[in-house]
Design brief:
The complex is a heterotetramer of chains A (about 180), B (about 550), C (about 160) and D (about 240).
Chain A (H helix, E strand, L loop, with lengths): L6 E7 L5 H7 L4 H8 E5 L12 E7 L2 E3 H13 E7 L1 H5 L13 H11 L14 E6 L9 E3 L6 H12 L14
Parallel strand pairs in A: 1-2, 1-3, 3-5, 5-7
Antiparallel strand pairs in A: 4-6
Chain B lengths: L9 H14 L3 E6 L9 H14 L6 E6 L11 E4 L3 E3 L4 H13 L13 H4 L17 H6 L4 H9 L2 H11 L11 H10 L6 E6 L8 H8 L1 H15 L3 E6 L4 H16 L15 E6 L9 H8 L23 E5 H13 L1 H5 L9 E8 L5 E6 L4 H8 L9 E6 L5 E4 L9 H6 L8 E6 L4 H15 L5 H19 L5 H16 L3 H5 L2 H9 L1 H9 L16
Parallel strand pairs in B: 1-2, 5-6, 5-8, 6-7, 9-13
Antiparallel strand pairs in B: 1-3, 3-4, 9-10, 11-12, 11-13
Helix pairs in contact in B: 2-3, 6-10, 6-13, 7-8, 7-10, 9-10, 9-11, 10-13, 17-18, 18-19, 19-21
Chain D lengths: L4 E6 L2 E6 L4 H7 L23 E4 L5 E3 L10 E3 L3 H17 L14 H9 L22 E3 L9 H10 L4 E4 L6 E4 L16 H5 L5 E3 L4 H4 L4 H10 L2
Parallel strand pairs in D: 1-5
Antiparallel strand pairs in D: 1-2, 3-4, 3-5, 6-9, 7-8
Chain lengths: ~180, ~550, ~160, ~240
């Protein structure tokens, strides 16, 4: 915690559809209560360039699919006390991981996505960071403290987990999570 | 003699006649022609002996016999000359003339060809293998002259079925198939079941890689198995039996087929056995390459012609087995003990072994060891005695590292546990099992992680796929091992291995799944440093791992 | 009478010996494989019909046990024993050498159908590990050189001395 | 012949049930629900999924409730911490075994495996997943099988054999390679024995067998086997 006395929270968007962030925002009026207790120090919905030091809680949406994301994830892990996988892509790989069952090389995956399946202007991408062999859930690369599954997870569930953590309790997912 | 319908008193006469017949020979040359010695040319050696005794004109005083395994499989072909039990090793057809000339004609054993390691036999106690290597398994008369079928005769003539069960119970004999359930108790359960017909299944589906005790027994002394089954049938009231044998054992199958035919011809199988109102039929059933079929309930499915998938117990086969009828399932090694117990009494048997674990156990001794082979030792003998005194220790001046007891689902035990007495309970306590008696010795060039991975792979291949832990769980464990041995292991892997191992052990349906994690759990327990070395330093001291296994 | 008819007659004899009993399915599959060399789908359908067992059940049993071959095997068969004792004694290296020498993978055959390489979990010849079986002949304490020479001689149709 | 009754305790509650009742049924009849996957009323018990394992006091072993019958004086625990942990483990192993991606699955929100995960609080899978990629057989007019979602519970095989009576389905191979097959491993359209009765799709707990174009909530009918049996026995 910082001098403001608020819990420093970050959110990260890796390979996902941003639906989990939408769900986060769907907490609606409860966000106002949350804002009393937390300070958003990094997020795709805030214009902050660098992932800061000393973060209390980081929520990460999306699967781990390329090397840039892996570096980001490692930074986040090193600088956060609590790391939370937010949503199915982060928890299972989900849609992003569909390519895993295809068992092809990263180049073939890119060609399929940018050339074969492209309706307009097929072109070979040159700015995509190098893909990992498999798209993975986050906990296969770093230690993850809590999981909020769902595609997307409900706003209620996100709120429940955050509220419990802010109160210093361990969330109990039994009967609450909605896998998939 | 074949074709003669034996009566009770005839047995004695056959035995005496056969003994007289054999006494006419001064020497008996036993050539081991079991699966272990044949590939080394045992059949040619047998032929050479037959020719040589004729050549030297001693064929009237020498009986050349084709026998089963003597146990020294690493130095085959082995030849045992009686009297005096002179054991020749690595005999070649070229050396046969020398042996016959010196030993038989001149009476001077050829010293430098004799098997040297006397300790190999001194610490053994051969009950089950009493006749192995000494009788011709293809002649029922040989077995009868060695006292065979007299226990059956004793049962039929003088004992009630309850009396037989009493002796077996008194003997404290426990199932030699691995689990170690009390044999007498099991017989009592089947005998009590009031549902007919009843069946007996003799388990010769020795699927444990590295184990060949049952095969050896069947090749060397098939009638001991048949007699044991007959006595069991008499005791529990069964009239039909099956011997379920691996199809990978062609010689054992042949030997048993012949033995069954002989027993039938002499009215030792079929209706009115020994002219008594006792009836028992015996058939062979062939396995087809499924380790799990050795499991008690899976073997039943297999005998019935189904996929060998185990089912939960209860109901136990003693009440609901083959075609839902009471069925006694017994390992052949257990059965081979029975004639001795009946003959000598249950109390006699308790004097061998330890108080809780009576009798002996056959072990197949293999791996990095000087004297691999088949041994039979009293229960309670220490691992050290087996590995070093009998086995002669590790060859080529290397260091002993671990011993694997109990087959692919056994445990890897380190040198600190070498003083452990071999019995069911002591082994279970340290995470190993008796299993079907496989002992594999590993030297310091073995990697324990690689070893655990090898056994896990075996169990993954052999899992029947019915229950989740064994099917899905073992496959995950195998993947974790792939990671660790290819350099992508994580520290979390150790906890995951441990957690899933314990779960698979506790939650699996049958013995295969319940014991499959043993190699993983014991290597984690005794050789954790090697896991850490693989995960943290990405190093394998033994040089087995981190090779690019998955090329292309 | 053609060869195929003969084989069918033999199979029929086996079926009758076992009285068309469902419980003899394994024995019948064993014998059918001996007669035909392997179990193709027509054969399995035939057995299924003869014993009145559902085809899926027959197929399930035939594929459960690794001893049954559903594909035509090579003319010559080499089987490596991957039992514990053989593994500890280095059978893996011999297998890799065979794969490299004859350009085939375990479980498969050479394109000309001359040679199949199979694996088994223990043939019980552990004391003379490592063991390789070349056309029903067990080679104990095998080495790369001996095994490869043996296979070559078998393929060349020369009766090799052991 | 009268059938006796048996008194036992389930989770501390004393219950009385007919002799020979399975623990699962005894518990259910007394309001205690033991989670299951492979078990289905009207079909023979299988005992494969290991979700319904319970503890019986006096034994260190665990027993599948679906196939273990009650006995007098038995004290059964259905929901200890260890059992919960083990159930979670079994569900995780099933989720990791093949390709399960709920968000693109026909059975999403109508899947017993997914429900089980949620109910038990499985919020992630500790194992790396195995991404199976078996061909989807959609050759049949309307029945589809996607073996990548199959959990090998064999409900379809049992309903096909025991209720429909044709035994089109069975398992091939063994262990992790086991697969549900039609006849001699034919494509579904070529199956000579299939009657297209749809029962397999109705009992499939996951999205492995489904009816093309039909909402899965409409297809699934867990009580179908028991329903048909009751109807058949009606005089």
């Amino acid at each position: 915690m910082t001098t403001t006395g608020k819990v420093r929270v970050a959110t990260i968007w890796l390979s996902g559809c941003s639906g989990c962030h939408m769900s986060f925002l769907d907490q609606d009026e409860r966000l106002i209560d949350l804002a009393q207790k937390i300070q958003l120090v990094y997020s795709p919905i805030a214009d902050i360039k660098q992932f800061p030091e000393n973060v209390d809680v980081t929520l990460i949406e999306g699967a781990l699919a390329n090397e840039e994301q892996l570096a980001m994830l490692k930074t986040a892990r090193a600088r956060s006390k609590i790391l939370i996988s937010l949503g199915d892509c982060a928890v299972t790989g989900n849609v992003t991981a569909l390519r895993n069952a295809w068992h092809r090389s990263d180049q073939e995956v890119l060609e399929r996505a940018y050339l074969d399946k492209s309706d307009l202007n097929p072109q070979r991408p040159d700015q995509v960071p190098k893909l990992l062999v498999k798209a993975r859930p986050l906990h296969e690369a770093v230690k993850v403290d809590f999981f909020i599954p769902g595609c997307p997870p409900s706003a209620d569930l996100i709120n429940y987990v955050l509220t419990e953590l802010l109160a210093g309790r361990t969330p109990n997912m039994e009967g609450r999570s909605k896998y998939g | 003699m074949e074709g003669l319908k034996l009566k009770l008193d005839d047995l004695q006469r056959v035995a005496e006649h056969e003994v007289d017949f054999q006494r006419a020979y001064k020497y008996r040359i036993n050539v081991c022609c079991s699966s272990g010695c044949v590939p080394f040319g045992a059949l040619k050696v047998l032929k050479a002996f037959e020719d040589a005794v004729k050549e030297f004109g001693v064929d009237k005083e020498c009986k050349v016999a084709r026998t089963g395994c003597i146990g020294t499989c690493s130095v085959g072909p082995a030849v045992l000359i009686e009297p005096g039990d002179y054991l020749y090793q690595s005999v070649t057809p070229e050396k046969v003339r020398e042996i016959v000339r010196d030993h038989i004609v001149l009476g001077l054993p050829v010293k430098d060809m004799l098997y040297k390691n006397q300790a190999y036999f001194q610490k053994q106690h051969r009950l089950v293998l009493r006749n192995a290597g000494k009788i011709d398994p293809s002649r029922i008369e040989d077995y009868i002259s060695a006292g065979g079928y007299s226990a059956l005769a004793k049962c039929l003539a003088t004992m009630t079925s309850q009396g037989v069960i009493y002796e077996v119970r008194t003997s404290g004999l426990r199932g030699r198939g691995g689990a170690g359930f009390s044999t007498g108790q099991k017989w009592g359960l089947v005998a009590r079941a009031q549902n007919f017909p009843k069946y007996i299944v003799a388990n010769l589906d020795e699927g444990d890689p590295g184990v060949f005790a049952n095969r050896t027994l069947a090749e060397a002394d098939p009638h001991a198995i048949i007699e044991g089954m007959l006595i069991a049938a008499y005791a529990v009231g069964a009239q039909k039996g099956y011997i379920y044998i691996r199809s990978e054992y062609p010689l054992a199958i042949q030997t048993l087929q012949k033995a069954i035919a002989q027993a039938k011809a002499m009215s030792l199988l079929g209706d009115n056995i020994l002219e008594m109102s006792f009836k028992f039929d015996l058939e062979l059933r062939f396995g087809a390459g499924a380790f799990v079929a050795g499991e008690e309930t899976a073997i039943l499915a297999s005998v019935e012609g189904q996929r060998a998938m185990p089912r939960p117990r209860p109901p136990y086969p003693a009440n609901s087995g083959l075609w839902k009828k009471p069925t006694l399932i017994q390992n052949v090694e257990t059965l081979a003990n029975i004639p001795l117990i009946v003959q000598n009494g249950g109390l006699w048997f308790t004097k061998i072994g330890t108080s809780k674990c009576t009798g002996t156990k056959c072990f197949s001794l293999t791996g990095q060891i000087n004297n691999p082979g088949l041994i039979e030792v009293p229960m309670g003998i220490s691992l050290r005695e087996v590995v070093f005194d009998i086995g002669g220790g590790v060859p080529d001046g290397r260091k002993f590292k671990a011993v694997l007891v109990g087959g692919p689902s056994g445990g890897c035990l380190p040198d600190t546990l070498l003083e452990l007495p071999i019995d069911y309970d002591s082994l279970t306590k340290v995470g190993a099992i008796m299993g079907s008696g496989g002992i594999v010795v590993l030297d310091d060039q073995s990697c324990m992680v690689d070893t655990a991975k090898f056994f896990t792979e075996f169990c993954v291949d052999e899992s029947c796929g019915k229950c989740t832990p064994c099917r899905a769980g073992l496959a995950r464990i195998k993947e974790i091992f792939d990671g660790i041995t290819q350099g992508t292991g994580k520290m979390d892997d150790i906890a995951t291995l441990e957690k899933s191992g314990v779960f698979i052990r506790d939650a699996s349906l049958c013995g295969l799944g319940q014991t499959a994690p043993n190699p993983v759990l014991t290597t984690l327990r005794y050789f954790k440093d090697e896991y850490l070395e693989h995960i943290v330093e990405k190093k394998c001291k033994a040089g087995k791992c981190f090779k690019n296994e998955k090329e292309a | 009478m053609s060869e195929i008819d003969n084989r069918r007659l033999l199979l029929e004899k086996v079926l009758k010996e076992h009285n068309f009993q469902e419980s003899a399915l394994l024995e019948i599959l064993h014998r059918a494989q001996e007669i035909y060399g392997y179990l193709d789908k027509d054969l399995l359908m035939d057995i299924s019909g003869s014993l009145n067992i559902p085809p899926s059940h027959v197929y399930g049993v035939a594929t459960f046990y690794s001893y049954f071959k559903l594909k035509k095997p090579g003319e010559h068969i080499v089987t490596g024993c991957l039992g514990t004792a053989c593994y500890v004694k280095g059978v893996e290296q011999i297998m890799q050498a065979i794969e490299a020498e004859f350009d085939l993978k375990r479980g498969g055959s050479t394109p000309d159908g001359k040679l199949s390489l199979l694996v088994t979990r223990c043939i019980g010849a552990c004391a003379m590990a490592p063991s390789i079986v070349v056309d029903d002949e067990v080679i104990g304490k095998a080495t790369k050189g001996v095994v490869i020479a043996k296979i070559k001689s078998v393929l060349g149709g020369v009766k090799a001395e052991t | 012949m009268s059938i006796g009754t048996v008194k036992l305790k389930i989770d501390g509650v004393e219950v009385t049930v007919p002799e020979g009742t399975m623990i699962l049924k005894a518990a259910k009849d007394n309001g205690i629900i033991i989670p299951t996957l492979c078990s289905l009323e009207g079909l023979t018990a299988y005992g494969g999924c290991r979700i319904c394992l319970v503890e019986i006091s006096g034994s260190p072993k665990l027993f599948p409730a679906c196939i273990t019958s009650v006995s007098t004086g038995m004290a059964v625990t259905t929901n200890s911490e260890k059992l919960k942990e083990y159930r979670k483990m079994a569900v995780q192993m099933l989720l990791a075994e093949r390709t399960h991606i709920c968000s693109v699955c026909v059975a999403d929100e109508h899947c017993e495996l997914q429900d089980m995960a949620n109910q038990l609080g499985v919020d992630h899978v500790m194992f790396e997943r195995n991404w199976s990629r078996d061909e989807i057989d959609s050759t049949h007019d309307f029945l589809v099988i996607d073996r990548n979602r199959c959990i090998l519970c064999t409900r379809c095989i049992r309903v096909c054999d025991q209720i429909e009576g044709v035994h089109t389905l069975d398992l091939k191979l063994r262990g992790k390679d086991s697969q549900v097959i039609m006849d001699l491993d034919e494509h579904w359209a070529n199956s000579c024995s299939c009657t297209s009765c749809r029962k397999c799709a109705k009992v499939c707990p996951v999205g492995a067998i489904y009816i093309e174009g039909e909402p899965i909530g409409h297809t699934k009918r867990k009580d179908i086997a028991e329903f048909i049996l009751t109807r058949r026995n009606r005089k």
